Amino acid sequence: MKPSATSGGVPVCSCCSEPAVIYQPASQRHLCGRHLVCDVELRVASTIKNESQIREGDRVAVALSGGKDSTALLVIFSRILPSFPGSELVAITVDEGIAGYRADTLRAAETLTKQLGVNHHIVSFRDMIGDDLDTLLTGREKEACTICGILRKKALADAARNAGATVIATGHNLDDEAQSVLMNTLRGDLPRLIRDTGTGSPSLFLPRIKPLAAITEKEIAAYLFVQGLFPVLPECPYTKYALRAEVRTMLTRLEQLHPGTMHHLADSKKRIEEYCEGMAVMEPLRRCQECGDPCSGDICQVCRLRHSLGK
Ligand code: SF4
Ligand code: ZN
Predict the structure, then answer these.
(1) Ligand 1 site residues, Cβ closer than 6 angstroms
(2) Closest Cα to atom 8, ligand 1: which residue?
(3) Is the pLDDT of residue 2 over 70?
(4) Buried b (16+ CB within 10 A) or exposed e, 82-113
């Protein structure tokens, strides 16, 4: 590998002579802030085009938590979507009702959507199920992320349909994808490992896309940081119960010791999906007998959860 040029001991950008802010092991390039911003936006635009994630006339609902990934996604979309004819952008934030966390992230989401001039919808667990997450979790704190995930998915899908969206975009990055592969493997959950939320019957589900799936968490943080857009926000208090937090720590260490680990894990998901194509790995989809939502059994996860919560 050609040694990187330096200026006063600091590596310089592979595209110009400005000081670099990041090194990309995959491309073996150092990039300055300006070229990192261009690179990230170009790669997201080509992912959307190559994977036909957005079609002409789509109304795209960005799931905006207010955190860094969804902030980056909305900023990038507000810049690149005008080149997709007839497409429109709307942001949706789910208020789970988590004290000490959600109020700040909601404020950040509202400020950002105002700055970007994007239509913003907020939906809450309280409106959907009658209580906030903190109350629902009394005595079940260890199940926080499972319960939160089931309800958030439903809240987001309903809000996106109500907003007239034709596709839902989430801010999952490469690190998230790698973590999910490992988590589902650790749980022995093959169907969930290969279940791609971006596919399926559009009459049953709004398609879900992950335009940042090839961008690393580090690149996203740097992308926001160099533009003064990095949101400094509290962490969800239930993170400590999440398997994802442990997997994240483990993968970060593995990536340091064995660069490329996260790429390999994320790629393995695609290979497993290709291998399983046409196999009956998943239960066929049916309609929930209680609410009519699509599900794989007689009753959907949300209805089952409602029963267990006495709702
Ligand atoms: Fe929900 Fe868990 Fe994320 Fe908190 S960490 S917002 S409980 S999924
Ligand atoms: Zn149901």
Answers:
(1) 96, 144-145, 148-149, 236, 238-239, 242
(2) 145
(3) no
(4) eebeebbbbbbbbbbbbeebbeebbebbbebb
Give me ligand 1 centre to Cα 163, in Å.
Answer: 24
Tokens matching residue 217: 């968490």
CA 83 vs CA 46, 54, 72, 120, 305: distances in Å: 12, 11, 18, 21, 42
Question: Whole-angstrom Cα distance, residue 193 to residue 126?
Answer: 31
- Tell me the domain boundaries of the chain: 1-31, 41-279, 284-311
CATH 3.40.50.620 for domain 41-279: yes
CA distance 129 to 306: 8
The residue whose C-alpha atom lies closest to atom 7 belonging to ligand 1 is 145
Q: Rounded mean pLDDT of 35-48?
A: 97
Round to whole Å and give the CA distance between 186 and 202.
30
Q: Distance of CA 270 to CAs 136, 254, 263, 264, 275, Å?
A: 36, 21, 11, 10, 9
Local confidence band at 197 (pLDDT 50, 70, 90 cut-offs): very low
By 3-state DSSP, what share of the chain in percent is helix, strand and coil, each rounded to 5? 50, 15, 40
105: tokens are 């992230």
In ligand 1, which atom is closest to the CA atom of 237? 4
Q: Which two tokens stand for residue 301?
A: 């996860």
